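Summary of Year 1 activities. Much of the first year was spent building the evaluation harness for sequence design. The harness presents a backbone, in tokenized form, and records the residue chosen at every position. We chose the following record to illustrate the format because it has been used consistently in internal testing since the harness was completed.
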């Protein structure tokens, strides 16, 4: 079986809701990243076998296969197919998994994987909002038979995880403050420079706060009545796009490419859909087991900061040292443009591995419906 190599990984800055990327059509935003990826790697775009992009709210501007629409909007070859997938928040991480699987199988040689979400234009939960007249996804007879009338919501899931794993709220504020501080340091030290593509005049992630007032953070009411998490303890709604070029050994040789890492091992799991967000724990165990590695073998971790409790419960359960996790900030500071975040985390991870000389990096993220992906990268 051939290896699946990462040749390059890039992203837009993440724009705040209503910020510098809000007026861009999602196909144009993702198309900008596709164009930049082709230019940076020097590949002939007509030789790309497939384009796989993640997007969660596939309606309105993001409907009807935004992966294909973005490729065409960028003026790239019409002969290259595209497909849009939805594995909730891990959609673009799953896009990389599918790309790597296609390459490792020998069926394809060059695959572009990435994702997009412009949440300023297509709001959070749009595709499952009964107020829009489309019904509610957790209301069928079969669902009721197995899960009754349990409230299914990510906000509740985050709170349930905090309760189940005994996560202290002050520890959550510590994590949020560290997320912003780490992201600010990364910006100041130019750690993102090699991965960012300037779009619409936006040159830096817009959600990073240079200072954090703990008392002010405490004073903000919880997201749900009686809940634990408030806005500072949750990922920021954001706009963004990301893309990664995955290549086979044959393509690397034929096109004279210089890969920066390989997809060592990948896994995906299902978990309790009521807790929703606990999946990174079994996903990490599974990917480490398949790789024959332990937590101690991993140099850097990216665990998506959907909610503070998710990261802290995952680290507590698995014994992951917090100083190795999200060293350049996470989604509480950098934002979480849903469909783009999986490849955004991977982009940030692989560039940090290159900068520090790390051998192994592990990425995982919780996903709606009780799902989680995990990926181990090995630097070359």
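For this record, the design step produced the sequence shown next.
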């Amino acid at each position: 079986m051939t290896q699946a190599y990462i040749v390059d990984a890039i992203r837009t800055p993440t724009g705040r809701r209503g910020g510098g990327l809000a007026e861009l059509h999602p196909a144009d935003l993702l198309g900008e990243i596709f164009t930049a990826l082709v230019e940076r790697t020097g590949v002939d775009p007509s030789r790309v076998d497939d384009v796989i992009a993640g997007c969660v709210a596939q309606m309105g501007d993001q409907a009807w296969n935004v992966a294909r629409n973005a490729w065409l909007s960028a003026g790239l070859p019409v002969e290259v197919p595209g497909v849009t997938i939805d594995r909730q928040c891990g959609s673009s991480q799953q896009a990389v998994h599918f790309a790597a699987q296609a390459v490792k199988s020998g069926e394809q040689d060059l695959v572009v994987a990435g994702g997009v979400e412009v949440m300023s234009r297509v709001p959070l939960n749009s595709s499952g909002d009964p107020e829009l007249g489309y019904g509610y996804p957790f209301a069928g007879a079969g669902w009721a038979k197995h899960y009754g009338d349990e409230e299914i919501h990510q906000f509740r899931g985050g709170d349930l995880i905090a309760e189940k794993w005994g996560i202290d709220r002050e520890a959550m504020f510590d994590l949020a403050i560290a997320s912003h501080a780490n992201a600010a340091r990364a910006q100041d030290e130019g750690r993102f420079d090699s991965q960012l593509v300037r779009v619409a005049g936006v040159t830096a992630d817009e959600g990073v706060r240079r200072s954090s007032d703990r008392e002010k953070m405490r004073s903000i009411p919880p997201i749900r009545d009686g809940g634990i998490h408030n806005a500072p303890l949750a990922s920021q709604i954001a706009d963004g796009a990301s893309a990664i070029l995955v290549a086979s050994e044959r393509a690397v040789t034929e096109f004279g490419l210089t890969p920066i890492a390989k997809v060592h091992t990948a896994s995906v799991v299902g978990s309790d859909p009521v807790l929703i967000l606990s999946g990174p724990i079994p996903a990490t165990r599974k990917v480490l087991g398949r790789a024959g590695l332990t937590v101690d073998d991993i140099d850097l971790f990216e665990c998506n900061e959907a909610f503070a409790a998710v990261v802290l419960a995952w680290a507590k359960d698995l014994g992951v040292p917090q100083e190795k996790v999200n060293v350049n900030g996470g989604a509480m500071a950098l934002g979480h443009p849903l469909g783009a975040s999986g490849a955004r985390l991977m982009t940030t991870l692989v560039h940090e591995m290159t900068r520090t000389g790390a051998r192994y990096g592990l990425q995982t993220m919780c996903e709606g419906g009780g799902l989680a992906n995990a990926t181990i990268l090995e630097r070359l």
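The longest strand covers residues 238-247. Quantitative recovery figures across the full test set are reported in Table 2.
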